[in-house]
Amino acid sequence: MKKYDVVIIGGGPAGLGLAYPLKSNGQKVAVVEENLWGGTCPNRGCDPKKVLLSAVEAKRKGEYLVEKGIQDTPAIKWDDLMKFEKTFTAPVSVGSKQGLVNAGIDVFDGHAEFESANILSVGSDKIESDRFVVATGQRPGRLNIDGDELLQTSTDFLSMDHLPKSLVFVGGGYIAFEFAAIAVAAGAEVHLIHHNDRPLKGFPKDGVDELIDQLKKQGVQFHFNVNINKIIKDNSEIELSDGQGLELKVEKGFVTAGRRPNDDTLNLNQIGVETDQHGIKVNDHLQTTVENIYAMGDVVSRKQPKLTPVSGFEAQYLSNELLKYGDGITYPAIPTLVYGMPKLAQVGLSVEEAQKQADKYDINKLDMTGWFSYKRTNEPVSKAEVVIEKESNRIVGAFVISSEADTVINYLTMIINAKATMSEVQSQIFAYPTEASDLEYFG
Ligand SMILES: Cc1cc2nc3c(=O)[nH]c(=O)nc-3n(C[C@H](O)[C@H](O)[C@H](O)COP(=O)(O)OP(=O)(O)OC[C@H]3O[C@@H](n4cnc5c(N)ncnc54)[C@H](O)[C@@H]3O)c2cc1C
Ligand SMILES: NC(=O)c1ccc[n+]([C@@H]2O[C@H](COP(=O)([O-])OP(=O)(O)OC[C@H]3O[C@@H](n4cnc5c(N)ncnc54)[C@H](O)[C@@H]3O)[C@@H](O)[C@H]2O)c1
């Protein structure tokens, strides 16, 4: 039986982010992966999605300037776009695995399961290790209704060679809003079904309503307060119904109603590792309820959002922690973003929380649509809500909706984490005219 200092289960951003620094610090390390090396983000998540969005951004930016110097709106050719996307995804798995091998890290292909707190089985291999780190991520949740198997997942959407004429997303979270923006720009008839009237509920309602308005103008059809309870096949289409009058026929349907942790097929509970509905329970050292087993990334039950840079941050933390027991993990302000045209973004203290403590915080509501930066691109909406702590005159939170919300939220994240006051921001010289030079008006 092979014996290691650390065995990592899951070859995604979290697992790979930990394997390299441990190896370069002299540890004997192995990584186990049952599917594509590199994990969700580069194979079936962030990266392929962002490649598809390149075309959406180009199309919308052209559209805004029709009759303002641009003659025709660019049209998206899905089949070509998908071929372009696959040039990014195709090399990922082989390259990620080879990178580990080149670094002298042992790799195992297959499904990992614990036999005990020190022994893991991967197919017919048994692997012994002093410590294990579970970094198995999440997978799409299912609806548990008749015909659920007729719905495809985000992975299927991101590898569709041809765009269906009509499609529906069931569940209105990050994935549904982003994919709806992509599919409607590419020319499909797009429906989005949500079981209540508050999709993307972590974002301010007025901002989400703006996004919904924009997506409606682009052609997305929303169905709120609808609980689908049956799906049947009808020739080349599927029909979704709620038993209350909605009967929707589309060529393809996708379940986008949340993701669930991959913590249920590793024998974790049998060896004493406790889980809850959000994933594996860990303390602030990312240690599970079994002393020598740690967990990180999307599979962990925690309040921070489940995102690639958060997985990377935890991997970096554990790479120190496993070599020398130190302080518990503390997270900086983490920005979250719904991509599309426009994008929604927020960071730090939420506007909703700040409103509850009006004695401590001011909220600066900015309609930037008429500001030079946005007027020159003629985009339909650009707004921000900035939370300022009265006592320190510091920005402590922000929400942004615009096509540049990703850039703006990253500036604000740096400002929040640096604890800079508004006068410190205003004393910088930024290149003009840019989103950075607009920052002086945020306070
Ligand atoms: C459609 C989509 C879009 C996204 N977009 C963004 C985005 O724009 N920005 C962002 O920051 N995040 C985004 N995310 C989230 C991001 O992909 C995850 O936060 C990130 O991949 C988590 O990394 P991880 O290493 O924890 O898990 P994963 O990347 O999921 O890796 C876990 C790995 O473990 C393997 N595994 C599971 N069980 C076992 C087992 N028993 N044995 C062996 N191997 C196992 C899996 O096959 C997988 O490869 C997106 C996710 C999706 C689905
Ligand atoms: N830009 C990004 O950073 C990004 C993009 C995509 C995905 N992600 C990651 O993936 C995760 C999961 O994304 P997601 O969009 O699948 O889930 P989500 O949790 O963001 O949203 C799912 C939505 O579906 C609703 N819902 C649940 N059951 C339903 C039902 N039966 N019918 C209709 N609606 C239902 C929920 O109320 C919720 O609003 C995100 O939380 C994030 O971690 C991030």
Automatic annotation (TrEMBL):
Free-text comment on the cofactor: Binds 1 FAD per subunit.
UniProt keyword list: FAD, Flavoprotein, NAD, Nucleotide-binding
InterPro entries according to UniProt: FAD/NAD-bd_sf, FAD/NAD-binding_dom, FAD/NAD-linked_Rdtase_dimer_sf, Pyr_nuc-diS_OxRdtase, Pyr_nucl-diS_OxRdtase_dimer
Keyword Glycoprotein belongs to the record: no
Binding of FAD, residues: K50, D298
Organism: Pediococcus argentinicus
Signal peptide start and end residues: none
Cofactor(s) essential for the protein: FAD
Disulfide bond sites: C41-C46
Entry similarity comment: Belongs to the class-I pyridine nucleotide-disulfide oxidoreductase family.
Domain Pyridine nucleotide-disulphide oxidoreductase dimerisation: 334-436
Keyword Nucleotide-binding: yes
Entry protein name: Glutathione reductase
MF GO annotations: nucleotide binding; oxidoreductase activity
Residues annotated for NAD(+) binding in this entry: G171, G172, G173, Y174, I175, A176, F177, E178, G258
All residue ranges annotated as the FAD/NAD(P)-binding domain in the record: 4-312
